Every structure is written in C-alpha cells, then in structure tokens.
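Support request, please re-run this one:
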Amino acid sequence: MLHQWSDAGVILGNHTFSHADLNNVSVTEFKKEIVKGEVVTRRLMQPRELYQLHFRYPYTHTGDSEAKKSEIERFLIRRGYKVTPHTIDSALSSRTLSNSALHLTGP
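Re-run finished. Output below.
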C-alpha cells in the first residue's frame, strides 16, 4: 500500500517504526524508533528528486516532560525532519483511512 501511495505522489512521513508513544518510552528508545522508521521512509521517498523528511508524533504525544520534548525536537532537526501537524481524527478507523487513500490513488 505504501508503494502505491508513493507512486501516486503522496508524501509519506515517518511515524516511528512501531507507533511508539513518547509519553511511555525513553528518549533513547524513541530515537531508535525514529531511525528504524526512517529506513522505510527514505527507501520509499528516495526515488523522488527532492523531498522533505516529515515526522508526526504517534498519538500526537510530544513527550511527558519538557526535557524529553526538547531532546526529541533537537534530534529531529539534526536529522532534517519537519514536524507535520495533526490532520487526521484518530477516531477514524485505519480501514476507513486506507480505503479512502486507495480510492484517491487508484487500485
């Protein structure tokens, strides 16, 4: 599905590899999740000449302390990420979102 979206011109971003919640994991673990997710994102987006690395925090949780939040923000900046806004209502099911995206991009 991700290849279909990318091929159709959808901008894909990193959301960590396993949807880790920064409020519930250490900074070290969250950084590992970002890097692991980045491998997939870069592979999918690399064929495009120019692309911006995008990141969105799972659950929109930016950390349960200011120190945690600041450290991850600096980490993302150093790696060239732009944090994207929360644009999807989490109450929507993943199936609904996937079907909508596939409808827009074709089979």
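The beta strands are 53-55, 81-83. The two ends are 10 Å apart (CA to CA).
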